[in-house]
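User: I'm putting together notes for a lab meeting next week and I want to include a structural view of one of the chains we've been expressing. I don't have a solved structure, so I'd like a prediction I can at least talk through. The sequence is below, exactly as it appears in our construct file.
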Amino acid sequence: MTGQSTNVDAAVDDGTAAGLDGTALARGVCRALAAHGLAPLTEFTFRDGHRADIVALAGDGGISVIEVKSSRRDYVADGKWPNYTAFCDRFYFAVPADFPQELLPAACGLWVADAYHAELLREAPVHKLSAARRRAVTLRFAQVASQRLMRMSDPNGVAARMFG
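Assistant: Thanks for the context. Below is the predicted structure for the 164-residue chain, given as structure tokens.
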């Protein structure tokens, strides 16, 4: 090339894996979570209006939030993630392999993902939720999962009219 920058070059400079957006990374993370026995939901909105990229429920009732960051720019522009720690036992970031990991707080768990899989590089410390908060988040998780299933199985039915 003649010194011209390509979109791929710009993406790598920004810390984004070429062609990987947050949706693709979330899919890879969800596959890995399911393989580890967790039940993930994407685009999960808590009662206070905060929306997490992924919330995962473990068999023992443990709740994890995974915030997907596709680039340095995505991470720097989003300061909402500390709010999510009030709704989970464990908090993680999920990033592509070429993401500058030194930007991420060491006190958070870390998944490295692509569109098809993710590897856990650092386990998140456990900060147990109160019983009341755990119950509220678990009930919300069940309601959201049920509503999504109903919309998929009957897209023109009551769930689609009631829950959008």
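A couple of points you could mention at the meeting. The radius of gyration is 17 Å. The chain is about 35% helix and 20% strand.

User: Perfect, that's what I needed.
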